[in-house]
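G., the chain you wanted modeled:
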Amino acid sequence: MAALQEFVVDTAFGRLAGLRNGRAQAPKLLALHGWLDNAASYVPLAPWLDGFDLVAPDLPGHGASAHLPMAAEYTLVGAARAALAVADALGWERFHLLGHSLGGATASMIAAAVPQRVDKLLLIEALGSLSEPEERVGPRLREAFAGMAALGGKQLRVFSDIATAIKARMIANDLSEPVARLLVERGVAPARSDAGAAGFVWRSDPRLTLVSAQRMSEAQMRALIRAIDSPTCMVWADPAQSYMPDAQRRERATLLRDGELHTRAGTHHLHMEQPDIVGALFREFLSR
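Predicted structure as tokens:
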């Protein structure tokens, strides 16, 4: 089994970092992590994908990758273009695509936008992105602009040690200690508190925590899903997350031209907590 190694590529989105297994001659697999996660999201799953040239970038503003300029917005379209920029920098024309949560929403958009480049699509806790009624357009814009205006005075929390940051992440995302540790160790940077004490802060861009300025309606999201041509395998945790009820995710799955849906008992990060279950499922799908 090839160990994951650091890599960096220079793109129009800045220097993007990540992890890859170095299987340069194997079939290509681009793996996109979730919101406020990073490339370490795929460390537990990597052994089951050892037959592929696995590349897991830190999306812009996450992990060790550059933050976007203040004049730029963090959007799904931007994340999709950044992921494609990584593939371009590596010289990949076609590849399999894997995504978890936000990474799965980004992967869905890529598969719909450039179907000629995506062989198979693998999704964890995602198919498309969150949607909302058109009536929310005005209130959402106001919330987004107000949040950006208030960001300048926001102070980053300084954790006294890694263990404290790990506990915070465990509580926030219902994660076990080993899984939280993987994400935290890649997701923090050394810092000092206002009192001068050494500690750690999240190195993700604080703007990622703000309300997004735009969100598609469910009708628009359904149209995007219909545009996905790639054979698709998705795995969802049971019970379902409140923001994506089981009925909605199953209804969306019926829109795919060639898709299969699996549910497994677990939590939102089931690919990290139960990599053997998810890995075996995906490896079988990719082998067909």
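The chain is about 35% helix and 20% strand.

Shout if anything looks off.
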